[in-house]
Design a protein that fits this description.
The complex is a heterodimer of chains A (536) and B (123).
Chain A: H1 7-34, H2 39-63, H3 67-94, H4 104-123, E1 128-134, E2 137-142, H5 144-169, H6 174-205, H7 211-216, H8 218-230, H9 237-258, H10 263-337, H11 346-376, E3 385-387, H12 389-406, E4 410-414, E5 423-425, H13 427-443, E6 449-456, E7 460-467, H14 474-479, H15 488-493, H16 501-511, E8 515-520, E9 527-534
Parallel strand pairs in A: 4-6
Antiparallel strand pairs in A: 1-2, 3-5, 6-7, 7-9, 8-9
Helix pairs in contact in A: 1-2, 1-8, 2-3, 2-8, 3-4, 3-5, 4-5, 6-8, 9-10, 10-11, 11-16, 12-13, 13-16
Chain B: E1 5-9, H1 13-25, E2 29-33, H2 36-46, E3 50-53, H3 62-71, E4 80-84, H4 89-97, E5 102-105, H5 111-122
Parallel strand pairs in B: 1-2, 1-3, 3-4, 4-5
Helix pairs in contact in B: 2-3
Classes of the chains: A alpha+beta (536), B alpha/beta (123).
Chain lengths: 536, 123
């Protein structure tokens, strides 16, 4: 009843068929039992059954002696290809999530064309006319037009399925996309191996004797898809590939064991097989451990990021809440000083000015806090435009003039003889840099004053802010631009600053690809701050 | 000369009173609204020359107000200056995209300076 090929040939195929049947059925039942109510799991079981009919039938067809039976089986396995594609189409309709849009027309086209070609193939001789016996078993003889129509329909259905999956991919979440990628990897391996055994090998060696192995690679499609459906945690392709590699080598070694010709050969090949299984097990375990460790690190990283975001959101809202009363104080005091509510008793002017200045300091502190939280959360972006550095320095000096006057120190800007070129900067942020450095200088200068200069150094512009103030030690110089750090003079002379201003100035300057640093000859000898910005 | 009419949409009563005092003294006719809904109602009725719009408002925020204002062809040409202490880059961007002339951070300006800004947009 069966064609008599050599025993080894049959043994190899039986081994593969056994592994594929047990493996594929095991996987699809595993999927089915993991969620019986899920439609995609039912379709997955169905498509596996059709696929196994196709694979097993294919082998049986090639070795059947009875032509009538072989002809019927040949037609039946082509019909199974149609049913497999229909079930694959409906499986992907629900995998990894249900399609957002119902496409009843496409559903109908796939169902109708699939079933028509199925019935025509099985019950007529329009596609397969007869069977011929070749050196490597039975071979179907196609009707020339029927063959084109059959394979044409199959290809169109396959393209439709992939096109729909491509459209669906765009609206999937990251995790869902990974699931589809697993399916596509399985599908690609299936296609590549089929192309190798059914196209490349016949062209290269002129033989079709290995075409069955193309069918056997369907186990990759089933394996990858089952894994993507069921596993809640996808460990990554590295684990899968290791498992596939170990699996393939194990199968090859097992085949070697089964075709052993002597007891000695059987023993050493068997031993090698067992040793390899142990080695493979530990290899897979170590890869899983590594991936798990990485996943834990990633989780921790995300947690830290979330916390940092929450913190900066809290500061944004808190800043807004703090600013509201500060706005009222600023507004009402300024209006009183502007005599909006009538003439002020002369004694009131100075205290009101002091309240105004203190309030400005509080506003600045809130602004700095907000800036620091944004810098640290990585949410700060530059809004670049061509601007004049001199104009910005002048406006800062104008704003801080009163503060310097109150302390009876001078604040002057020695403008360069030749006008500086306009450079590409974020005006607000650069203004903040100059403001923070000069404000810091005013705060720590009790006698003398502050001089601001600006120079064109060809490729960059340098701003020099020198004061005759407290001066800085080497240790202070090294910590000057860190957040919440102040020089010892800061802790001795003033208590209201928290050392955010220079940190913000440094960060903003660095965002402009510039440099900021301070120099001082020591205590009581004043300090000089340098800001350099590239000319762009 | 006819007084310029300014609508101030501001839910903080202390600030609304403060700006009303200063704008009135500077010769403007001031109308107050404390929510986006009321602001839109008043805009339709009074047709102000400029709207000074706070962004964080109860129920519907200033961005919602701007969206609805821009949809109404009769009102869309009224200049709007957003002013808020909510200094969020995304919100600022959205306000500009919806046609706001400026986005002022309230604490950075005295009422007098805000009037200067408003005058520059009324010219």
């Amino acid at each position: 009843m069966l064609l008599g090929f050599n025993d080894n040939y049959n043994l190899i195929h039986y081994t593969f068929l056994f592994i594929i049947n047990v493996g594929a059925l095991g996987l699809s039942f595993w999927v089915y039992l993991a969620g019986r109510q899920k439609i995609e799991n039912r379709f997955f079981l169905l498509l596996t059954i059709f696929l196994l009919f196709w694979i097993d039938g294919g082998y049986l067809f090639s070795i059947l002696k009875d032509f009538t039976q072989a002809l019927f089986l040949g037609r039946l396995i082509l019909g199974m290809v149609c049913l497999f594609l229909i079930s694959l189409y409906f499986f992907l309709k629900y995998f990894p999530i249900k399609d957002k849009k119902e496409q009843k027309t496409i559903d109908t086209i796939i169902l109708l064309s699939g079933f028509i070609i199925f019935f025509v193939t099985i019950f007529t001789n329009f596609v397969v006319r007869n069977v011929e016996l070749t050196q490597w078993g039975n071979n179907p003889i196609y009707h020339p037009i029927g063959r084109i129509i059959f394979y044409g329909t199959i290809i169109i259905i396959a393209i439709l399925i992939l096109f729909k999956l491509f459209l669906k991919y765009s609206y999937l979440t990251k995790n869902e996309k990974i699931k589809v990628q697993y399916f596509l990897i399985g599908l690609s391996i299936f296609i590549v191996i089929n192309l190798f055994f059914n196209v490349a090998l016949p062209l290269w060696r002129g033989t079709i004797q290995y075409w069955q192995f193309g069918n056997y690679s369907a186990i990759f499609l089933i394996g990858f898809t089952a894994y993507a459906i069921v596993k809640r945690e996808l460990f990554g392709i590295k684990v899968i590939l290791t498992e596939v590699l170990v699996g393939v080598i194990a199968i090859l070694l097992l085949v070697q064991v089964l075709v052993s010709e002597s007891l000695l050969e059987y023993l050493w090949k068997g031993g090698l097989f067992v040793l390899f299984l142990i080695f493979g097990y530990f290899l897979i375990q170590s890869v899983i451990r590594e991936i798990k460790r990485r996943a834990e690190l990633q989780k921790l990283y995300e947690q830290v990021n979330r916390l940092s975001k929450t913190k900066s959101e809290f500061i944004s809202i808190a800043s807004h809440q703090l600013r509201t009363p500060l706005t009222a104080i600023k507004g009402y005091i300024s209006m009183m000083l502007e005599k909006t509510y009538g003439k002020l008793p002369p004694k009131m002017k100075k205290p009101l000015e002091n309240i105004y200045i203190s309030n400005e300091r509080l506003i600045k502190l809130v602004n700095d806090l907000l800036n620091v939280s944004r810098i640290e959360a990585g949410r700060m972006k530059l809004k670049l435009e061509k601007a004049s550095i001199e104009e910005i320095i002048s406006s800062v000096i104008e704003e801080l003039e009163n503060e310097a006057k109150n302390k009876k120190i001078y604040l002057k800007f020695s403008k360069p003889l030749k006008k500086l070129p306009k450079i590409s900067i974020d005006k607000d942020k650069f203004r903040q840099v100059v403001m923070n450095v000069i404000d810091n200088a005013i705060r720590y200068t009790e006698k003398g004053g502050i001089t601001v200069k600006a120079k064109d150094l060809k490729s960059k512009i340098q701003i020099i802010i020198s004061d005759t103030g407290a001066g800085l030690t080497k240790d202070e110089l090294s910590k000057m631009f860190e957040s919440f750090s102040r020089g010892t003079a800061g802790t001795q002379l003033y208590t209201e600053g928290v050392g955010l201003g220079l940190y913000v100035a440094k960060k903003f300057t660095e965002m402009h690809r510039g440099k900021i640093w301070a120099e001082s000859e020591g205590k009581g000898k004043g300090s000089t701050f340098y800001i350099e910005l590239p000319i762009k | 000369m006819k007084k310029k009419k300014i609508l101030i949409v501001e839910d903080e009563k202390i600030l609304a009173d403060m700006y009303r005092d200063k704008f009135t003294q500077a010769g403007f006719e001031v109308i107050l609204a404390d929510s986006a809904e009321e602001g839109l109602k008043v805009t339709k009725k009074e047709m102000p020359d400029l709207i000074l719009l706070d962004i964080l408002l109860p129920r519907e925020n200033g961005i919602g107000f701007l969206k609805r204002l821009k949809k109404d062809p009769k009102l869309s040409s009224i200049p709007v200056v957003a002013f808020s202490n909510y200094d969020d880059p995304e919100t600022k961007k959205e306000a500009y995209e919806l046609g706001a002339k400026d986005y002022l951070i309230k604490t950075s300006y005295t009422p007098k300076e805000i009037i200067e800004k408003v005058k520059s947009y009324l010219r």
